[in-house]
Amino acid sequence: MNKVIEFLEYEIFKIGSFSFTFGKITSTLITILITIFLLWLIKKAIFRKKSFLSIDKGNLYSLFQIIKYLVWIISSLIILETLGFKLNVLLAGSAALLVGVGLGLQNTFNNFVSGIILLFERSIKVGDILEIDGDVVKMERIGLRTSSAKNRDDIIIIIPNSLITSNKVINWSHQSDKTRFKICVGVAYGSDVELVTKVLKESALESRDITDKDSILVRFVNFGSSSLDFELLFFSRNIFRIENLKSDIRMLINKKFIENNISIPFPQMDVHFKSDATGHFSKK
C-alpha cells in the first residue's frame, strides 16, 4: 500500500509552485473518462426511441447540447482543482487579462451568447429548413459559437450564430406540414387564356409531390410588356428540394405548351428610323 501511495505522489515535473504527480495525472484522466461515459449515458437516455413520441428531435438535441456544456464546465473545474490550481486566485489574477481579451474577441463572445440563446430559446432546431441571405439550408448542428447547415447542393456551410440571431431568417419548418409555392410563366399575346390555365393545372396535377391538389390555383397576374403573365400556385411538403420539383413542373409545362401550340415569347424591341432635313437617319 505504501508503494502505491509513493507511486501516486511521485513528482513527474514541476512548473513554479505547481507539481504534477502520477496521482494528479491519473485523477485527471479518470475524471475525463467518467465525464465521457456520463455524457454517453445521458445521450442514450435522452435519445431513446420512446422520447421521440413526445418530444421533437431538435428539442432533444438542444437539451443534450446544454447538458454537455454544463457537464464539461463542471469537469474542467474539478480537473483544475485536482491539479492544484486555486480557482479564486486564478480568476482574480486574470481579471485584467480577461477584460483585454474580451475587447478583442467581441465577435466571438457575441457568437457564444447567440449560441446559448439558440439552444435555450429553441426557435431554431436541428432539422429546420432556413432561408439565410437568400440561401436555403437545413440545420445539421447547433454549437456554442458556430452552427453547421447543408444547402441544396449538399454543401456543408459553417454559420456564425450571431448571423442567425441578429439577421432576418425565414424558418420554413415553422409553417404547417405543407407550404405554398409558385411558378411564374408568360405566354404570347393572343393565346387562349382558358387553355393556358388548363395546361398549367394539368402540369401541376401530374406531379407526385404536389399536396392538396384541389388547392392548385392559376392566376392571370398582368399584361406584361411582351407577354401575358401567369402564376401557378401549389402546395408541397418537399420544401428542401422544392427547386427540383419546380424544374419538373416547368418541363411538363414546356412540353404541354408545345403540344397545344402555346408560345412563350421573348422580349422584343421596336426600333424606328426617322430621317431629318439633310437625309440622315436617326434612331428613336
TrEMBL record:
Gene Ontology molecular function: any one: mechanosensitive monoatomic ion channel activity
All residue ranges annotated as the Mechanosensitive ion channel MscS domain in the record: 107-174
Keyword Magnesium set for record: no
Entry superkingdom: Bacteria
GO cellular component: plasma membrane
Residues annotated as domain Mechanosensitive ion channel transmembrane helices 2/3: 65-106
Record keywords, A-Z: Cell membrane, Membrane, Transmembrane, Transmembrane helix
InterPro entries registered for this protein in UniProt: LSM_dom_sf, MS_channel_1st, MS_channel_C, MscS-like_channel, MscS_beta-dom_sf, MscS_channel_2nd, MscS_channel_C_sf, MscS_channel_TM-2
Membrane topology: Multi-pass membrane protein
Subcellular compartments: Cell membrane
Transmembrane feature ranges: 20-40, 60-79, 85-105
Family, similarity comment: Belongs to the MscS (TC 1.A.23) family.
Protein name (database record): Mechanosensitive ion channel-like protein
Source species taxonomy: Bacteria, Pseudomonadati, Bacteroidota, Bacteroidia, Marinilabiliales
